[in-house]
Amino acid sequence: MTIPKKGSRSLVVDVVRYRWVASVHDNAINLVIELADEPGQKLQAYFHCRDLYVRSPDGKWRFQSQMQSIKPSHVKRIIRHSLRSGWSPGEKIHKPYVLRDAAKIALTIDIIDIDSRFIEPEAKMAYIKEIAADFLDTYMALSLCMDFKMHDQIMDSRPGTRFPIGDENMQKMRLTFSVYLDSVNARNLPVIALQCNEFPDVVETFWWFCST
Asked: Running DSSP on this structure, what letter comes out for residue 142?
């Protein structure tokens, strides 16, 4: 099925005309591109939505805007990169050419902002949910598995009993976290959940292989 003219846009890249359309699905922007005339293989590029938050006077984080946007200049970068990487827009290939994490190629946002989410604790504006998610990954990998006292507390607790995770920098950003025994999986291994209290949808679960 070709991209309909209604609701889509066209642009010319190196004397070739393409048609493109962008839509949002499951917290990601889905960009679809094909030849405007006699289209063949489609290109699907995915951009993660990035929610920008600002800190209110009471210190709490408030959603400001979704900072990811797609412009014709971004689409041109995606097209040229994909053509060099194996996309065949003139071939009748049913399977689309898929490009993930397309923001780094399209340069829709600064590369440093994508790869490094460090901010000063007193910052007034941040991609704060991304920082919370990064903290959960880092804490599990570097701290929780080595904290045998916390291990014993969690293993002796009822599922769902929450234990606070202390981190000075996160607290300065008004982010707090909890860890708890979520369940036991089919192999009888404990499943541990780590969650951001301010953003409950920021949660990670792990099988705990550590032993004392």
From this structure: H
